[in-house]
Amino acid sequence: MAYFARIENNIVTNVVVMPNTDPQINIQWLTERKGGTWLETAYDGRFRGKYAGIGDIYDPQSDTFQSPE
Hints:
Number of helices: 1
Helix content: 10-25%
Distance between the termini: 29 Å
Structural class: alpha+beta
Largest sheet: 3 strands, antiparallel
Radius of gyration: 11 Å
Number of strands: 5
């Protein structure tokens, strides 16, 4: 499975699970049907710092999800 986070004003507002296909296809599908900006996140935290949770902050400079302080 693949996981995707919706970002609004650099805040994670939703996280969904999709079939493990090409991430760009999933992002395109989500954007067309649900709108907004979507980024892939990894449940095991292997990229973007950590698994994105609702309320987490996305830092575009470091391309990472961070817990709010």
